[in-house]
Amino acid sequence: MKSRKPKHSVTIGAIVGKGSRVWDQVNLYKCRIGRNCKIHPFVYIEEDVVIGDNCKVQPFTAIGKGTRIGNRVHVGPNVTLSNVKYPYVNSVEIVPTKIEDDVAIGAGAIILPGVTVRKGALVGAGAVVTREVPPGALVVGNPARVLRKMR
What we know:
The protein is mostly beta strands. The chain has a single domain, classed as UDP N-Acetylglucosamine Acyltransferase, domain 1. The chain is built from no helices and 21 strands. The chain has strands spanning 10-12, 15-16, 21-22, 27-29, 32-33, 38-39, 44-45, 50-51, 56-57, 62-63, 68-69, 74-75, 80-81, 98-99, 104-105, 110-111, 116-117, 122-123, 128-129, 137-140, 145-149.
């Protein structure tokens, strides 16, 4: 198969692991993408983000500076992983978000700065996650609450 150059994408200082696919219309800034990942179109990943192996990030997703994403994580479309706790024009406090291994995040979810989503958790579509999600929990709603333990 003939290799082609991505169209209308910006990649500055990004490291992309073997077997990963980055689609067109993606912005990657000084981040690290693991092996065998799929980064779909219209994804914005800021600097100092680390994404593990075998992850999928679907379209229209924004991942803020310093975010850590484990292995085998599914990030649905229109997800926001925020990192600014108190936004100001000239000064911002960056508080990175952490997503552990084997997590699935549903479409349109928002995960606020400094939150950790623990291993094996599921964040329901449209959830607004304001505090830590326990391992193996299903969280839904705004603000997100534990609906049940899945494991």
